[in-house]
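Input (cytidine deaminase):
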Amino acid sequence: MAEKRKLLQRYMQCLNEMQDELRRKELAKKMETLEKLQCELARRQEQRVAQGGGQMGKSERRQYLKDKLKSYQKTLKGLLCELARREAFANGERGRVSESDNLPHPLKLDEFTVAFRYVGEDGRELLMAALAARRCAYVPYSKFKVGAAFRAKCGQIYSGCNIENAAFTPGNCAERCALAKGVSEGEKRYTAGAVVAYHPDGFTTPCGVCRQFIREFATRDFPIYIAKAPPPEQEGCIPAIDDDEEVLVTSAYNLLPHSFSAYE
Ligand SMILES: [Zn+2]
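Output:
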């Protein structure tokens, strides 16, 4: 019996070592991709300066370079944040426990924008679930369709759409619809969320009531991905979200920093 236990322990140890090795390889691959992207950004920057430099005055060129540098820094910051998220995810001992675990500042995540192609697989999956739910939106009055999706701690995704009412006040938002579905199934902890709607001027973020509602189930800060749905004339087109489309990656705490959280 003791020998069998020893053998089992040795097997478990081997298994753990193999898993560690796999994670290390995965991270090294991601770092390599990031370095390639940095090189590509630098190359493009040089190319643009070479193209536009001839017609610009000295101060104009300086401003142009400053603006470009700022935008690249923003992209790079977004990529680094996304990498930190993915690293944390890869390091998660129990799989999809929390996308914010192991981050340098676990209490509050950074807010940034990043192209859809650079959003992690999990974020993209949530955005697509929100987009699918948005198709069911019941909006005969405003015609403003919203979709939302939240991932529960167990990994299950709950999605919802906005539902209007002729009497107006009984209407419900997509975020609360999605969370209510999860909570009514016994899920009280969530690790990420996504909201999708179309407004020509920019991102559609959750309303005040929904922010407080989300905060109720955010025992830790978690990322919330916000993307623009395709314009009405392009609905149903593939891909539903273009790879270059900007995604706002914010968080439950960022959306409502001074929230009401408990009586005690
Ligand atoms: Zn709302």
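The pocket of zinc ion is lined by residues 173, 175, 206-207, 209-210 (CB under 6 Å).
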